[in-house]
Each structure stands twice: as C-alpha cells, then as structure tokens.
Amino acid sequence: MLNVRPQDAVTEADTSAVSPPPVPLGGEVGVDEAEAALVEHYPRLVRIAYLVLPPTLGRNRRVLTAHAIAQRSLPRGRGAVSGGAAVPRARRPAGSADPGYAFVRDRVLRQALEAGLPLRRLARPRRAQLPPLLPHIWGLRVFPRSGGADELALDQRLSALDGPARAAYVLRGLERLPDTQVRDVLAAAGAADPDAALAEADAVPGGKKAAALLGSPEFDPCSLQVRPTDLMRRRQHAKAGLVAVAALAVCGALLGLPGDGWGADAAAPLYARNPAAEAALDPDRLTRAEPGAWQHSTRRDFSVWPARGPLVGDRGLLRRALAVWARPGATVQVSATPGTPSGPPMGPPHLLFAGEVDAAKVVLLHDGLRVARYAEPRDGSPGAALDFARTDGADTASAAALVVARAGADVRYLTAPWVRQASVRDLLAPAAPPRPLPRDADGLTAPLPSPAQARVCRAWHTLEAVEADGAVRVLTDLGELTPARLTFGPPAAPQDATGPAARASWARTACSLAGVRAHGVRSVNAWEYARQKLPEANGTAAWLCTRAETWRGGGGRVMAQFHPPADRPGAPGTVVARAEDAPSCGVREPRALAGVLWKSQAGQWYVLAAGSGQFASLTVSGGATGESAGRVLAVRAREGTRAELNGRLADGTRVSPLH
C-alpha cells in the first residue's frame, strides 16, 4: 500500500524530557484528569522518582520502587464516586504545569522522599519505606542503560545529597521550575527545610550542562537492561541441607544400578577448579601482539592490534577488569549489543588498550568473538561499566577503529595500527572538506561530535580513516563500541562512501541512520538503484535502497528512499518503505522495488514507482491504475490515494515491493 509522508524520514525526538504544557488552573483535579496525566507522562514521573530515591537502595530496587511509586500516585476511590471524582489540588501560581500532572508529581515526590526516611523503632513504617510488592521480577536484576563518564560523575554527586536536595536539583534541572515554585513543591511534598535543600543543590558543580544530563538514558528507568541474579550465592546457605540430601539420594540410586554404576564421563563437582577459567583472570597471561605484527600477518583484524596505552603495565587495573568481566557485581553497569553474549572469556583475552581517557580508566580486551570495554572512575570512587560488542569475522575495514570513551555529545576512538591519518567529515555538507582529527602516539583521537548522542539531525560527523595502503574508510558512531562502516554502490560490489556521488547521496540519507542506533550494525550500504524523470518537467528524482548489516548476521534493516530535487544538499529524502530481516537490497536478493505518492509543483498528485535493473514492467492498481513497460512508472492520482504496486522481472516472475 502506498501512502507515504515526507516527515516519515524525520528522526523522532525523546519526549520524556519535554515539560508538560502550561494550562490554566482551577479549584479541583479530577481522578480521570490525574490518570490521564500519569499515563501521558509516566516515563517522566518514574524518572523523577528514580532520581530522588536514595541511592543506597541499589539500582535494581530503585527501578522497581520508582515504578511502584508512580503507579501508587493515583488517588483511591474511583469506584465510589461517579463521573468527575475530584481530589484537592495543591496551591500553585498561575502558569504552572498541567494541574493533573502537578498533582501526580507532588504525590510521587512525597513518596520518594518518604522512602529515604530512616525506620524508627515502635513506629509504623510508611509504605514507601518498604520494598515494593509490585512490580517484581524474580531471578533478574534490572537497571538503566549505561551512560558516559559525565553521567557517572553526576550520579555520584547526587548520591552525596539528601533526599530534599536531590528533589530540588531534579525540579530545577528536569522540570525547569524557578526557585519559588521549587520551595512550594518541596513544602507540599513534606520537606522540612526547602531553603536548605536549594542551598545544598547549588553546591552540585556543572551548572546547566550537568542538569541537562538528567534526561539521559543513564537515569531512564523505563529503558532497562536485564541480568540474572547470583542464584548460587543466594541459595547456597539456605538450601545446603536440601542439596546434601538430594546428592545422597542420587548417589544411592546410581550405585544401585546394575553394571558399572557411574558413567565413564561423569562431570566434575561444582566446586572443582578450572585451569582455563583461572588463566583468564590472570593479567600476566593476557595475549599481547607485537607492534608490527599486522604488517606481516595473513589476517588483519583485532587479533593483530598491539597493546597500547600508558597503563598496559598496571596489573591492578588489568586484574580488576578481568575480575569484573568474569563476575560483574550488582553495581557494575553492563551493556551488550544485540546478539552478543556477556559471559566470561573462555581463556586469556587479547589486550588492546589500557589508559586514562577523560575522567575514566579504560581497558579494551578482545577474546576472538567480542570486544569488551571496562571503565572505572579515574579518581578511584566506586562504580564501573562493562560494555560488549560482537566482532567475529572482522576484517581490515571493520577493525579500523573502536570507541574508547564518550563524554557528553562527543566520542573518542582508538584507531587501528594500520591507520595513518584520521579526519572528520560532516555527511550533511558533502562539498565541505574534511578537517584533520588529532591523534596521540597510541592512536587515540581527540573528541569529535557523535551523531549517536544528538536528538536533532543538524550535522552527521563521521570518522575518515586513511589506511597504510591508501584505502579510506568512512565510519560512523551508532552508540556502540564498534563504529559502522558506510559504503555506496550495488550490493554485490559496494565501495567506501568517498566519491562525489556517494557523498551527495549520503548527505540526504544520513539522518535516517538514527533508526539503526544500538542495533549491532556492522555496515550500512546506500544503493541508488534507479533515477526517474518526474512528470511536468519537475526534474529528476533518485531512488535509493539502504541496507544495514549486523555483526550477528540476522536482524538486518532495509529502507527504500525517494530523493526528489532539493534546494540544498543535506535535505533529507523520504523513507517510503522499511523492512527487517528481508533479503532485499542484499547479496542474496540484489533487487529493489518501491513507490510513493508525490505532488508536483503545479499541485497534481502522482503515484511514482521505480525498480532496479532486473524489472521489465511495473503495474499499479486500486486507487490509481496504470502500467509501464519499463522499471519506472508515473500515474496520475488523487491526494490520499492508496494503491497496490507490483513488478515483473525479465523472466516473468511477479515481485512485490518492499514494505
């Protein structure tokens, strides 16, 4: 079906950090109004509760408690009062936020502050001070996605504040309330001294830049990662007697069997020591490649990267990195690209880098299947992050760089030893020359803007890496350890996106890459499969098929785009079709067919369609009817027309368009 709007190509913004619109206030808030506010702003209310709750609860319990608080913030009695059941509204000045939202937010703040109060002897505990009954997840730990060093530093600073001061900081930075309203909201939520809370919040360094981090994924309890709990440790003592009885019963049954009894391949007991597992935790057994190994090796990938960085001899840091990889504790922030296992290494991994980067100490390790990044605060404060990315089957192009650190909107790469020069190019400005990107002696680049952190697509900065043999790789950050390679051309023979035609096409395609962030993408190819002269002499349009391949093989994403003439090089094209796990535009099925409803400059609507070179004819039916003896088609239509498109190959095979 064809009914495509140009705005489909626009990147969606994260609405969780947008303040509710101001509306006039009345005297009461209906229960239905409060419920509507809770449903509409639920991610924001849960984020507020998560930020205000005491950090001593731990990340898993903070997430569950924040959701429980938000869900308990509605007033009771819906069934007892018909129609417009009402609850009293707190006093607020005119022009403040939506009254239903403000009412629910006050209840969320009150419960979050109560959760931080100490339990008193002979005093009945408040509901927020007790662990949540619901929601609850057995056998799993949940926590938000990992952020960068700035988010980690802000979390540590907020941990040092008391509950009212954290609430004041959140109301200022996330809700953007003036101090007068912050005092009123804190007083309504039960804070004893709002002025003292504001003064304590003033002491948090960073100003507006730090407050802006409150909207980052680090503090989003609605976008979660999941890991199993330590079942063995949790059950070891409680079920020791039961395990012993069960073991005796099994032994007796086996010894009573006829024949030899025990099998020849009996497993070792659970407490047996494994030499390979122990070797993987020894920093002295880490694999290290020689500095010039890549020059004479038959393969050129991460296995021939030399160990670089000023801390490659810091045994304490390396030991901590290996121990956390093998057994990440509850306070470690763990993330992995889709399809990447996060278990311990099977043997001593390969050391790629160890050094201080911005506010963290970073270690990069490779075990043949994955790259692991360990980071801990540079000042020795508690907290660590562990990130995984799948890299099996890497080659010279896909092993050209790794992400070492993120700081705010910037990213820093470690380039491969065969990269002799690095520069930065904005894809949305194809005619602008690249600017040099400084690197140190270890190949660590200076910070460059990361499109993975941007909410609005005004620029798309890529890394251009010139290799020793003269090849130029175009790499982009999509929020993972491994940057994605950008190519241009037919699926059977794509080339690096360095030529004028490739830059012109990618200038109008780059913003659509936001749809494949954090998806485990290895490479993205843009293929201009057709050009079409538009009716009424409106110029020539290009049809592109963009395919994102993943490291795991499956889960590839395909987008068909329509590029009409534009008044500027970076004007985004229109995404007219999307598909996931489809073979179209790939090596297995190197063909494409798509259509769009288009309006000419004179105001006439048309159904336009184009197919790749294998198509001999196209047919459209339904709201518009027509056919063409070729691989492009233009049929008059009306606004809002929905039509069916089909094509036939040279051998007569009927093929449907990309959906």
Walkthrough of the structure:
- There is one protein chain.
- The model is unreliable at 1-27, 78-96 and 253-265 (pLDDT under 50).
- The longest helix has 17 residues, at 99-115.
- β20 and β21 form a beta hairpin.
- The protein has 15 helices and 29 strands.
- α2 (42-52) packs parallel to α4 (99-115) and α6 packs across α8 (194-202).
- 23% of the residues lie in helices and 26% in strands.
- The chain has 659 residues and is an alpha+beta fold.
- The strands form 7 sheets. Strands 12, 13, 15, 16, 17, 18, 19, 20, 21 and 22 form a 10-stranded mixed β-sheet that branches.
Counting helices, strands and paired strands, the structural category is alpha+beta
What is the overall pLDDT average?
84
Which parts are unreliable, with pLDDT below 50 for 5 consecutive residues or more?
A: 1-27, 78-96, 253-265
Calculate the terminal CA-CA distance, rounded to whole Å: 8 Å
Number of helices: 15
Shape: globular
Tell me what portion of residues adopts beta-strand conformation: 25-35%
Largest sheet: 10 strands, mixed
How much helical structure, as a percent, in the residues? 10-25%
Radius of gyration: 29 Å
The total beta strand count reads 29
